[in-house]
């Protein structure tokens, strides 16, 4: 899976359009990243930039932007309403897909070290990258703001994680920077059928983590109850990692619960929505829909779709597009304005600039591309595509079985099989592209220069590495296509009897995929100089082919036994 990081740096300039534009252009022109949003604020005198890309590209773009900001922004002249202590005030890295929080922390630390050592800027690491529990809090790291930084740096307990711990002309100009790793934050509003801000706030206080202040007697006008420390006692809300407030939106003529979901791994969008629905209901208010502000990762929308399908006792092994439609309708994301997944889901936005993939072609388009004079896509890609069709058929039978009349109590069993089938066909679809790329890399290796001993050696090594890959990719196709036959066999045995022929056709497709990929393993083996490795791969492939043939026979026997002529 492609690794994607999001970076959301906040620079302490929101009024000078030349500076704002220069930083935007620097990020926009950085290789391997896409700038998604620039949000300047005049009153706060800060601008928030959002960009995504591969981890290495994102960290490089962030470093260059921090470097440029230190040259363009003089903190000695900065004033604004928002707390801040540096030209680049805060720079969080956020895992979007294909990357763990632990890996994200490592990238945040690499960036912090470079900023501290190469730019001479004091860096405090926060959230998951923090060096201590206290420093997890951004507010704690930034305490005293820029005006208190000189005194803070002189205290041992405030030594930066990276960079200088002394005041200098450079630090006076740049200030300090907080760099961290955090989970994805979603700005999300829930629409209510009321115009009352007070009632909307009541619901917001019910759900937000901070809750409400405890009062004696009347919950609104009563005396505030204080604890032994003199601080107000709070009644916590029901949703962790959620900030919320009620407000009236004149444009729409309704009140909303405006929320920041600061960690959607703790409280995802669908959980927040349902909890607001319940708390609003208890106060005689109805939720009419919701509104996403900004962007959201694909996995959050898919999980929302699965959540609402589970509530309906429906199979969750349906295509991603269907999951997203269910999520949009269930959350009412299209109540106030049309919701276009291609413009609101991060991964889909990135696909707009990506080269077209074979898997995205129509059936005719793929057939005609295969039939063209180009040697790729060829038999390997076609084998993977046929395998994907086979797994799709197995998935279809599972989905049909999950809502067969009289089988309502078995929906979850079939949903699990549909999820398995979906995993197999998605994996095989990815191999359609990967097989063609493997062939193209081999051709590229043959085209490398060979004018010197060094170039000849490098060319031979590249050819051998590419040749090995042209064997390993079809071997993976064989493995996944064989595994997918488990779905077809199970569906032939216990699935909807009206679709048993589909399970049989799925098995035929899977076996064809295995057999076709096997031919590709064989034809590329002759080019591998490491004959022992070639023999090992050929042995594995032969074993997979034999198992697929046996399994195909078993599935067809089951299917044909149930078909009455």
Keywords summarizing the entry:
3 domains, alpha+beta, Alpha-Beta Plaits, Formiminotransferase-cyclodeaminase, Chain B, domain 1, 52% helix
Task: Summarize the structure in words.
With about 575 residues, this protein is an alpha+beta fold. Helix content is about 50%, strand content about 15%. The chain is built from 18 helices and 13 strands. Strands 1, 2, 3, 4, 5, 6 and 7 form a 7-stranded mixed β-sheet that branches. Strands 11-12-8-13 form a 4-stranded antiparallel β-sheet. Strands 9-10 form a two-stranded antiparallel sheet. The longest helix is centred in the C-terminal third of the chain and has 42 residues. It is globular, with a radius of gyration of 29 Å. It starts with a strand and ends with a helix. The mean pLDDT is about 95.
Q: Radius of gyration, rounded?
A: 29 Å
Q: Level of helix content?
A: 40-55%
Query: Which structural class fits the helix and strand makeup?
Result: alpha+beta
Full CATH superfamily name of the largest domain:
Formiminotetrahydrofolate cyclodeaminase monomer, up-and-down helical bundle
**Overall pLDDT score:** 93
CATH fold-level assignment of the largest domain: Four Helix Bundle (Hemerythrin (Met), subunit A)
- Give a short account of the largest sheet: 7 strands, mixed
Number of separate strands: 13
């Amino acid at each position: 899976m492609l690794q994607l990081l999001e970076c959301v740096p906040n620079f302490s300039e929101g009024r000078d359009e030349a500076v704002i534009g220069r930083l935007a252009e620097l990020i926009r022109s950085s290789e391997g990243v896409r700038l998604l949003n620039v949000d300047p604020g005049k009153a706060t005198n800060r601008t928030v930039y959002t960009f995504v890309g591969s981890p290495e590209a994102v960290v490089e773009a962030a470093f260059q932007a921090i470097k440029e900001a230190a040259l363009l922004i003089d903190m000695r002249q900065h004033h604004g309403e928002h707390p801040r202590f540096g030209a680049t005030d805060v720079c969080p890295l956020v895992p979007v897909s294909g990357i763990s929080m632990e890996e994200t922390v490592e990238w945040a630390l690499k960036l912090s070290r470079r900023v501290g050592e190469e730019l001479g800027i004091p860096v405090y690491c926060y959230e998951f990258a923090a060096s201590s529990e206290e420093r997890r809090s951004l507010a704690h790291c930034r305490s005293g703001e820029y005006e208190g930084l000189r005194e803070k740096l002189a205290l041992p307990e405030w030594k930066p994680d990276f960079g200088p711990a002394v005041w200098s002309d450079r630090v006076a100009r740049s200030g300090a920077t907080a760099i961290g790793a955090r989970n994805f934050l979603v700005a999300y509003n829930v629409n209510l059928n009321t115009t009352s801000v007070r009632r909307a706030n009541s619901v917001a206080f019910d759900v937000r983590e901070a809750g409400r202040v405890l009062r004696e007697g009347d919950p609104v006008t009563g005396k505030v109850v204080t604890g032994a420390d003199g601080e107000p006692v709070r009644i916590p809300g029901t949703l962790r990692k959620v900030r919320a407030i009620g407000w009236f939106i004149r444009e729409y003529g309704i009140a909303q619960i405006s929320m920041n979901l600061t960690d959607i791994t703790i409280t995802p969008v669908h959980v927040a929505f349902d909890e607001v629905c319940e708390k609003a209901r208890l106060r005689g208010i109805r939720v009419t829909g919701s509104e996403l502000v900004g962007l959201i990762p694909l996995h959050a929308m898919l999980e929302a779709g699965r959540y609402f399908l589970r509530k309906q006792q429906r199979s969750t092994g349906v295509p991603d597009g269907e999951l997203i439609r269910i999520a949009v309708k269930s959350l009412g994301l299209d109540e106030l304005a049309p919701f276009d997944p291609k413009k609101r889901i991060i991964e889909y936005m990135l696909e707009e600039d990506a080269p077209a993939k074979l898997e995205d072609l129509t059936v005719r388009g793929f057939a005609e591309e295969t039939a063209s004079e180009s040697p790729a896509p060829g038999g390997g890609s076609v084998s993977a595509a046929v395998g994907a069709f086979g797994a799709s058929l197995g998935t279809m039978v599972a989905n049909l079985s999950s809502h067969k009349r009289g089988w309502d109590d078995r929906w979850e069993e079939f949903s699990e099989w549909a999820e398995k089938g979906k995993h197999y066909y998605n994996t095989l679809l990815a191999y359609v592209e990967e097989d063609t790329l493997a062939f193209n890399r081999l051709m590229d290796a043959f085209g490398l220069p060979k004018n010197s001993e060094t170039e000849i050696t490098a060319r031979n090594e590249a050819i051998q590495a590419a040749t090995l890959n042209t064997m390993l990719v079809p071997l993976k196709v064989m493995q996944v296509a064989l595994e997918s036959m488990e779905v077809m066999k199970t569906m032939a045995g216990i699935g909807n009897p009206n679709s048993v022929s589909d399970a049989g056709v799925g098995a035929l497709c899977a076996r064809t995929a295995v057999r076709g990929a096997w031919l590709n393993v064989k034809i590329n083996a002759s080019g591998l100089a490491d004959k022992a490795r070639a023999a090992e791969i050929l042995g594995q492939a032969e074993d997979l082919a034999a198992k697929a043939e046996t399994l195909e026979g078993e599935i067809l026997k089951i299917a044909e036994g149930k078909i009455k002529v």
